[in-house]
Amino acid sequence: MLGEPMFVTLTAALDEASNGSSYMLPLAFSLFAGLSTGIGGVLVLFFRNNIVHLGVIAFMLATAAASMITVSIVDLFWSVADVIGMPHTVFCCSLGFMTVWAVRKFGPSLLHEPKADESTEHRLERVGIITAVTLTAHNLPEGMAVALSTMGSSTLGLKMALAIALHNIPEGLAITGPLLMSKQKTPFEAIGLALASGLSEPVGALLTLVFFRNVLTQALIDYALAYVGGVMVAVATLELIPEALRTDRHWHTVGGLLCGTVVMGLSLHALGE
Questions:
Q1: Which are the contacts of 227, defined by CB distance < 8 A and separation ≥ 6?
Q2: Is residue 14 assigned to a domain?
Q3: Does residue 11 fall inside a structural domain?
């Protein structure tokens, strides 16, 4: 676990650099966390020559799915349940899951369940777009949480921003990977979508600081995070994992699930989540 003295020293220096501004640090921390989604998107370019292989597709989709599920369970579900209670947490998570199911059934045609004769390219494009929309919704309350935490304690805010930044990197992969593999989007468009998803973090922080500072509580954010956790689990189990299994590369899928779970779990543990 990262040492507390290091955080105290660093945040003290940042506090001094911000000249006492109550807006500077929350926005800086949330921007830092959000930009890491774009970093994850850029990383896909290093594998682009191999990305057409079905094994790579299966591994990346499964890794992203496992990362999202691990974050939802470890970082959202249990921590939120301690604050708002298990019944409320289960209800909000279930509502989030059912929202994704309903959108797939009755929403815009791009978000519908895939048809049997749908091409692999269009399926992957749909997965990437759904993931981007979901993670944008996920990042907004995270930005609010970073802002609130930083206003209470700059050390706590920095810890939260680092934890979010770490798990935003594979989230960027989850967006950019399928879009590039679909060959329906240029690298610029795919990375731009991942970056836009991450930038909802500072947007959430700005909304908190400007409009909701006196009315928004940590409890309300916890309800929102529980809901988004259910949405993320739904996307992982209804979209990413089935798409990985359709490649018929089951060992790559299993390896991706293990990799995503272990890497994300260790990252959260190292940061005290």
A1: 92, 93, 95, 96, 99
A2: no
A3: no
Backbone angles phi, psi at 124, to 5 degrees: -65, -40
Split into its structural domains, the chain has a count of 1
Number of H helices, E strands in the chain: 12, 0
pLDDT recorded at residue 8: 53
Contacts of 234 (CB under 8 A, 6+ apart): 96, 97, 99, 100, 101
DSSP state of 77: I
**Distance, CA of 42 to chain centre:** 16
Cα separation of 97 and 99, whole Å? Answer: 5
pLDDT for residue 273: 54
- Which residues in the chain show pLDDT less than 50? 1-3, 17-18, 50-52
The answer to the question of residue 5 being in a domain is: no
Per-residue pLDDT tens digits for 234-269: 878 887 788 788 878 889 899 989 988 888 788 777
State which residues form the domain around 227. Answer: 23-270
Task: Confirm whether 69 is domain-assigned.
Answer: yes
Does this model's pTM top 0.70? no
